[in-house]
Amino acid sequence: MKILFQHPLNKRVERLEDTQVTGRELNRGFDRIYEDIDILEDKLNILQSEFTQFRNEVHQKLDTILTHITCIN
Predict the structure, then answer these.
(1) 70 vs 65: CA distance, rounded Å
(2) pLDDT tens, 20-36?
(3) Rounded distance between C-alpha atoms, residue 10 and residue 53, angstroms
(4) 22 backbone φψ class: left, alpha, beta (φ>0; ψ -120 to 50)
(5) Could you tell me the pTM of the whole model?
(6) Which of 43, 41, 23 is CA-nearest to residue 33?
(7) How many Å from the N-terminal Cα to the C-terminal Cα in the chain?
């Protein structure tokens, strides 16, 4: 005999079960997030290094300009 009427709670439970994520899927998702974070950290480190190099070049140029302006070696 087929059940013609399904209780709303049963439907909600079935929908919830259909949307559940397995532990393996969750771990893979976190692994991807951590990989993306590592990539962003690498890019940030490169940017910090480039900024430090740029700052040092600006300081050198300012020192040269100030030396010429003040005539102090």
Answers:
(1) 9
(2) 778 888 899 999 999 99
(3) 64
(4) beta
(5) 0.58
(6) 41
(7) 101
